[in-house]
Amino acid sequence: MKKLLFFGMKHSLTFLLSLLLCATSVFAQDTTRFTDARGLMVIGKGLPTNPFWVRLDSTQYRHLRPPVKALARHSAGIAVLFETNSTYIRVRWSLAQRKFYNNMTPIAHSGLDLYAMRNGQWQFVNTCRPGDKEVTATYPVVSNMDGANRQYMLYLPIYNELVSLEIGVSPQATLTTPSKPGIDTTKRVVIYGSSILQGASASRAGMTYPSIISRRTGWEMINLGFSGNGRMEFEVAELLATMKASVFVLDCIPNPTPKEITERAYPFIKYLLDKRPEVPILLVETSIRETGYFDQRIGAVITEKNKLIRDVYTKLKKEGYKQLHYLSGEDLLGHDHEGTIDGTHSNDIGFLRQAEVMLPELKKLMK
After folding, report:
1. What contacts 248, CB < 8 A, 6 or more positions away?
2. Which partner from 82, 220, 332, 347 sits 20 to 30 angstroms from 199, CA to CA?
3. What InterPro entries does its record include (predicted)?
4. What is the pLDDT of residues 179-199, one digit of tens each?
5. pTM (predicted TM-score)
């Protein structure tokens, strides 16, 4: 009988403790003050959009193909800057749909990535991990901080559509736009390209090469990577020409076929040069695909595409376009053959290397 009584008391205490922990958790969650992130500083959007968290809206992409329209709704390259003295940060976000990619982490395609300004540099804090079933998640991204006022930058999902986003802080904390933003929006690089530009296959959003360049320079980067669909359609050139830019980068050669490069590259680039003569353009070759060292067909196609785009560049330079510049793809991934996740798309090492190769060229072009 004593054993049974002890057993019952033990489980009653366990049950009461569980209730107390749950109540504490709910209380802590209830007291968190959430703020719609649209009211904070948002970077990485080439044009204003409606809905808010997309890269292009229906009025801007109405002439583009359906795959480009769908990819334009992904929030790749968009980030939120804010300041707070909260001892913790929570993030609540909703996505348009659940996703699965066999060469990308859920944190990259559907999660978020937080950085803080520390000692004058952007430093990684933590990721916000999406749920495996739900499209809405609340994540305790960082806790137990010292309460100092800091600037933060939160990168959004790179291969999913964000529907809503809220930043949560303690009730007594301040939450504002940065007084001295760590990103200078007057220095803006607009990049058009492929799945690699969009972010395949960084481990998290902050490790795409535009994001790495942005943190190292303080420039705003506009990521217009459209997975498999950066094919130099003339309508895209017309759209790019409407965007504020200090430099244009065309890193789209992985996607068009040799035939498409022959037909489209010259009118695409010439239109942008004529419409925006004050803006330098950096034309980037496709990197050498690792599989192309063994698959002879792939290797031959890559070689042909780079030759064709080099020919277009040479032709335009002869016509007097001094603001056009060229970057070989030879060194973009390094030379140890460890820069991709699947023989095609960059891993974090590949993105770091591409950022380091492109950065000196971009610094020359940035006015």
Report:
1. 189, 190, 191, 192, 240, 272, 276, 279, 280, 281, 282
2. 82
3. GxDLY, SGNH_hydro, SGNH_hydro_sf
4. 999 999 999 999 999 999 999
5. 0.91
